[in-house]
Amino acid sequence: MSILTNLFGATLRYAKFHRSQYWEPERLQAYRKDLLQKTLIAATRIPFYASRFEGTCDLKDFPGLPCLKRSEVSKLNQSVRSLYPPTASFPSDCSSGSTGMPIEVLFDASHQRGRYAARIRYLRQNGWSPLQRNAWIIYLPERTPDGYLIQSRARLASNFLSIFTDFAEQVAWLRRVDPLFLYTIPSNLEALLDLFEASGQRLPSLKRLFTGGEVLEDDLRSRAHRVLGVEVSDNYGTTEAFLAWECPEGSYHINSEHVLLEVVDEAGRPVAPGKTGKVLVTTLENYLMPLVRYEIGDYAVAAEENCPCGRNLPLLKSIVGRSINFFRLKDGRLVSPWELVVRLKYRPELRQFQIIQETVDRYELHFVAESPLTPESQAQLRRFFHEVLDSDVTVEFMPVEKIPRTPSGKFMTALSRLSDRPRSEQM
Ligand SMILES: [Zn+2]
Question: All domains of the chain, ordered by start, with CATH?
Answer without folding.
Answer: 1-320 (3.40.50.12780), 323-426 (3.30.300.30)
